[in-house]
Amino acid sequence: MNVRQLLISRRSITIAAALACVVSLAIGAHAALNKRALDAAKAMPTEQSDAAGKRVAKLALVIGNGHYPDANAPLAQPINDARALTAALRGNGFDVDVVEDASRDDMSRAIARLKSRIKRDSVVMLFFGGYGVQVGRESYMIPVDLEGIRRPPPGGEHRDGAGGDEAAGRPRQARRRRRLPP
């Protein structure tokens, strides 16, 4: 049968094909999420029986940085995400420490508090919303008081953000710093 005999435009056929693809993706995603929920439900009884004898500490540190002085406009999403995640974690029994618009000192103190509360068999989560930088295999959370994001600060000093290794308790490797020409 000829497509032109049905008096359907190419545009209508394209829209119908795109709609079929979207529906197919939605069905696939729904099936994958249901399978994942069933797998989690199967694993739940053993997890509960292990935890029945002892209370496991659930700790979380949630940092939301949105008001960077060098940014053109404040970031609303990191703070909104931090607040929503905090509510969800507290609903699941986590003891949550929340820090909004954290300076480098605030972030260091919050990470130290979290590390001091970690015991054997603790469940620990660290969330950071805001600007970050990854250099090689190291990630840095950028505090709101970091100067020189756009240009080096006066005197050309380099200041560190809070590193992912620092938060995980791994010692930093000694490394040389080179100043690149402008």
Write the layout of secondary structure elements.
Layout lengths: L9 H43 L5 E7 L12 H15 L3 E6 L3 H14 L5 E7 L2 E4 L2 E4 L20 E2 H5 L14
Parallel strand pairs: 1-2, 1-3
Antiparallel strand pairs: 4-5, 5-6
Q: How would you concisely characterize the structure shown here?
A:
By secondary structure, this protein is an alpha/beta fold. It is built from 4 helices and 6 strands, in the order H-E-H-E-H-E-E-E-E-H.
Structure in words:
The chain is of the alpha/beta class. The chain folds into 2 domains: 3-50; 55-168, 3-Layer(aba) Sandwich (Rossmann fold), CATH 3.40.50.1460. Helices cover 42% and strands 16% of the residues. The chain contains 4 helices and 6 strands. Strands 2-1-3 form a 3-stranded parallel sheet, sandwiched between helices. The longest helix has 43 residues, at 10-52. It is extended. It starts with 9 loop residues before the first helix and ends in a 14-residue tail after the last helix.
Binned, the helix content reads: 40-55%
Query: What are the low-pLDDT stretches, counting only 5+ consecutive residues below 50?
Result: none
Give the strand order of the largest sheet, numbering strands 1, 2, ... along the chain.
Answer: 2-1-3
**Within the CATH hierarchy, at the fold level, what is the topology of the largest domain?**
Rossmann fold
State the shape: extended
Span between N and C termini?
Answer: 67 Å
Q: Major sheet: size, sense and barrel closure?
A: 3 strands, parallel
Which CATH-level-2 architecture of the largest domain? 3-Layer(aba) Sandwich
Count every helix, treating DSSP H or I runs of 4 or more residues as helices. Answer: 4
Structural class: alpha/beta
Count of beta strands: 6
